[in-house]
Amino acid sequence: MLIKISVHDLKETLTRILSVVDKKNTRLILNFIQIQASGNKIEMTATDLEVSARLTTHCLVEKPGTFCVNAKNIFDIVKELPESELTIELPEGSNNLKLTCGSISFTLLIYTSEEFPHLQFGTNANEFKLKTTQILEIINKTSHAISNDETRIFLSGIYLQEIEGMLRAVATDGFRLALVETELSNNKIEALINGIIIPKKGVTELKKIAESYPDQQIGISVDESFIYLNANDTYLLAIRLIAKDYLKYQAIIPKKTNNHADIDKNSFLNAVRRIKIMANERSNGVKLILREGEMTVAANHPSLGEALEKFPINYNGKEFEIGFNAKFLMDILSIFGDEDIRMEFNNELSPAIIKSTKNQHYLCIVMPLKL
Description:
CATH topology of the largest domain: DNA Polymerase III, Chain A, domain 2
Radius of gyration: 25 Å
Mean pLDDT: 94
Largest sheet: 8 strands, antiparallel
CATH class of the largest domain: Alpha Beta
Distance between the termini: 67 Å
CATH superfamily of the largest domain: DNA Polymerase III, subunit A, domain 2
Shape: elongated
Helix content: 10-25%
Strand order of the largest sheet: 6-2-3-4-17-16-15-10
């Protein structure tokens, strides 16, 4: 095999695919990437058997070939090379891969491709498309609420479900919930009607593919075990779904609320960020005191002192106090733009709804904290 490729292009492709490789996997071949050169392109494939990726890059192929090489090893080499042309050569019958860049040369041991897992990157079932802007909106508005609790694996991802022709994405860790809806290119997709859960690592790779192709459409298909993504036939993903039933999240969302306040997001976020400094480290708790036309954010640290900040809001109800985890509030408020947000609530023990006064397709739920 003999190919010539831009160091910049190779480095960019390796950077994207490296995160798929599980460096702690005891199965040696899974620390490797498969490289196949033919025509005028090179295909790189990596997998940990839960998430798989295949990326295609243009290059000059003088002699085609296929091999497997340690992913971290080749990346560490390529990232230190000057921005020039790299020659990759594998003599016939040899296990030594030669990398040459000007006066620099490396020789790497390789494995044959026969040992690399056979992977699938698509199905004809449950096909639809999403714009990369839609994918990023789903991830940016819900991923903060994904659970880190390994004993509740069904919460450690984003749940996708088709509801009345819209694609609904939900994430919750039991203390907060984020829900966003976006339009589907076609509806009545059986897999989405039943609902699927994309695991956290898959969400990370999903964000990467969306960021790599701004303002484009991604082809998506789903089977019983995987969701597949295809960006222009040059960036393919296969993500194993979490094979569990999702939480009945609808029960968490209050069906009716008695009070609401319209609040400037920036004033609210800045106040919480400042007052959090005096919050107890264990609870991160801050108290919100709502009076007609005014909100007070307060915190009391048993060994450091206390703090409070007042600012105007649009609220006409009775005086009301409720506590929240400051970090949870900051995570939620940071997602909204420079706009007013609406907080809806019933009492100091029931979950509060935070949503935009403009966008009705996005809301967050946060559980109160007893202070």
